[in-house]
Amino acid sequence: MTTAVHALRYLQPSALRPRRLDLATSGGATPHGEADHPRFFDGALRHPDAAAAALLAVADVAAARYHRPVGAASLDPVVTADGDRLRFESFSGCGGVHARLDVLPEGLDGAATGHGTTNVDVNAPLREALRLRTPGQRLRLAVGTGELAVAVGPDTLVERKVPLPDRWLKGFAETQVLTARFDLRAQLPAAEAVRFLRTLPTVGRGAVRWVVPAGSGLRPTSRPGPGAVCLPGPERLTALRPLLRHATALRVYAPPGTPAAPTASAWELALPGGRITLTLSPDSSRGFSGEGGLLDVLAQDAPTGHVDTLAALLAWEPRIDPVDLAEDSGLTPGQVRTALAHLATAGQLGYDLADAAHFHRRLPYQDGRAEDRNPRLRTARALLAADAVGPVSGDVRVVTVGDHAHHVRVGADGTALGCTCRWWARHRGGRGPCSHVLAVRITAGEEQR
What we know:
Layout: E1 3-10, E2 15-17, E3 20-23, E4 28-30, E5 33-35, E6 41-45, H1 48-62, E7 78-82, E8 86-91, E9 97-103, E10 108-110, E11 115-119, H2 124-132, E12 140-143, E13 158-165, H3 166-179, E14 183-189, H4 190-198, E15 208-214, E16 217-221, E17 229-232, E18 249-254, E19 265-271, E20 274-280, H5 295-298, H6 304-314, H7 322-329, H8 333-345, E21 349-352, E22 357-360, H9 370-373, H10 375-385, E23 389-393, E24 396-401, E25 404-410, E26 416-419, H11 422-427, H12 435-448
Parallel strand pairs: 3-12
Antiparallel strand pairs: 1-13, 2-3, 4-5, 6-10, 6-12, 7-8, 7-11, 8-9, 9-20, 14-18, 15-16, 15-17, 18-19, 19-20, 21-22, 23-24, 24-25, 25-26
C-alpha cells in the first residue's frame, strides 16, 4: 500500500485552555484557494461536555487498530466546515472504522462558520486535558486559532511528519458510495441505546454478530435472516461508550434486504447539538480501501471539463443534489454521476446518512488520476491496451494474461457476470469486480457506443 509522508505544520499545538478549546489547523483548502492555516470557527459550544467527548472519540478511533493491534496509530482528524456545521472525520489505523462527528448549527454559538477542509491537531496532551476537563464548564471552540499568527521564527510552528496512507483517501471514497445505499434499519431511544451498547464486548477477535429489531431495542441473533443487521466486530463500537451519558438516540443503518453474508453497517449516536457516526467494514480484518464500489463507474471516462465544472459548483455544500447539479452544469444525469465518482476518488464527497445526501469536502491530498489509486482499474486498462479481451463465444469472453486464460461469463447484453480467477472465487463480486471482469465491462461499453 502506497504511503505518502505529509508534513503537518501548526502555528501552535492544539490545547484545552481555561474555558477554551483551541484546535490548530494545518494547510487546507478554502473557497479562496489553499491556505496555510485556515480559520473556520470561533465561538461557544452550546453542549460542551458532549462535543468535547465526541471529538475525543474521533481522535481515539484515529489512534486505534482494531485488527492486529500491534501499536497505536497517530493521524490527525480531518475537519470540514460548510457554512453551518463542522464535521470531524478519521479512520482507524487498520482502515476498517470510519468515524465522523457532526457539530450541527444548534450546537454552535458564535461567528459564522467558514468553508473549507483541513487537518486539526489532536495531540496527546490535548486528549488528556479533554478527558480530565471539569464537567459542565463553559467551553469556547476555536478551529484555526490565530493567536500566534503574527509571531516569527521557527519556534512558532509545531511540525510533525506523519505517514498518511492512500487507504485513507480510498476509504473516504468507498464509505460514501457504500453508505449512500444504506437504509435506516432501527432507531433506539436513549435508554435502549445505552442498554444495548453496554452489553457489547470491549475486546474480541473481530467476530461477526447479527442483531434484529425487537420492540424499541435490538436483540442478538445467531445468523442472518429477515430484518437482521450485521454488527461486524462489535468491539469496534467501544469508542461510543464514553458518550452514553449524552446519548439521546441510536440509529442503525445497513443495506436493504436480507443479508446473505456480512455487510458494512453504520451506527449513529445522536447527541445534544450533534451526532457521531461509526461506520464498520464487513469484517475487522477488512479495510474500506479495497471495497471497489466505485470501479464500474470509474471505468467510464469522465472528460476533465465535466469534472472541473462540477468541482466548481460543489462549493462545500452541506447537501448535494445531483438533479440540481445536472441543471446547473448542463450535463446529463449519467455524466454527473460519472464525474462525481471521479471527484470521490480525490476525497471530495462524503455522505451524511441522517440527511440522506452527499456533502462536499476537499481533502489535503494531491490530485491524481483515478487509475493511480485503483490498481484493478489500472490493470483493466492495461489488459485493454494489450488487446487481451477476446470476442464473445457463447456466454464467455476469454481474457488472456500471459500464459493464463481467464473465462469471464457474460449475460445476453454482453455484461460481465463472473470470472474464473482467484479473486472472483474468493469474493464473488462482494468487493467490486476483478480486473478481468472490469476489462470486459469496459469493452462491452465501447462496443455498444
